[in-house]
Write a structure and sequence with these properties.
The protein contains 9 helices and 8 strands. By secondary structure, the chain is an alpha/beta fold. It has a single domain, classed as P-loop containing nucleotide triphosphate hydrolases (Rossmann fold), CATH 3.40.50. The strands form 2 sheets. It has a 5-stranded parallel β-sheet with strand order 2-6-1-7-8, sandwiched between helices. The protein has a 3-stranded antiparallel β-sheet with strand order 3-4-5, covered by helices on one side.
């Protein structure tokens, strides 16, 4: 039987370890890694660069459809310009949350995400991958951790602390709580655990432990696809 490359969906709140786990898992499987959260950040960054009102859903969705966006392999580029560092700031955190609430913007990016994952062989991370983007994904994971641990991780992650200076963990915890509230209460594709997702609390787990556990699970259930 020919091997069929899998679609692996990883969801969860900020600081739960999605990005690091997804990158490592993709590397181990020789799959592509797609960071969908970075796509919303990129649209927000471009909208601010263009001076758009972030509440103008028509304008922002039109912009999202008109740009060339690449959020694979750990780097993020808009129209060929690498903005990987520029989108990891508190200002873009807030802007991305506003943009992500807009159904028309989500429709544009979900369409792109489905095209990216259509052939399988992808580890896609976000907040609605297993519930909306790929509800029939072969593997669905929902990673979470205690609020304190999530804040601690984010405070020590250089890729997410640009522009924060020596921000206190409590400040970051407050920001994460606000983002969680926005993500879970938005009308379009709210953050939720898919009924058939495997939920993992990573509070006391290292990245390697999480990745190894996921690999064992995939090997047990999808060995013909690996």
């Amino acid at each position: 039987m020919n091997k069929r490359p899998l679609v692996i969906a990883i969801d969860g709140p900020s600081g739960a370890g999605k990005g690091t786990v997804a990158r490592n898992l993709a590397s181990r499987l020789n799959y592509r890694h797609v960071d969908t959260g970075a796509m919303y950040r990129a649209v927000a960054w471009k909208a601010l660069q263009e001076g758009l009102d972030l509440e103008d859903e028509e304008a922002v969705s039109r912009l999202a459809r008109g740009i060339t966006l690449d959020a694979q392999g750990g780097a993020v580029a808009v129209d060929g310009i690498d903005i990987s560092r520029e989108i990891r700031t508190p200002a873009i955190d807030a802007a991305a949350a506003r943009v992500a609430r807009q159904p028309k913007v989500r429709a544009v990016l979900i369409e792109q995400q489905r095209k990216l994952g259509a052939g399988g062989g992808v580890v896609m991370e976000g907040r609605d991958i297993g519930t909306v983007v790929f509800p029939n994904a072969d593997v669905k994971l929902y990673l979470d951790a205690s609020p304190e641990e999530r804040a601690r991780r984010r405070a020590h992650d250089p890729s997410h602390t640009a522009g924060r200076g020596a921000a206190a963990v409590t400040d970051i915890a407050n920001a994460l709580e606000a983002r969680d509230r926005l993500d879970r209460t938005r009308t379009a594709s709210p953050l939720a655990v898919a009924p058939d997702a495997i939920k993992m609390d990573t509070t006391q787990m290292s990245v390697d432990e999480v990745v190894e556990r996921v690999l064992r699970m995939i090997e047990a259930n999808h060995s013909r696809s690996l």
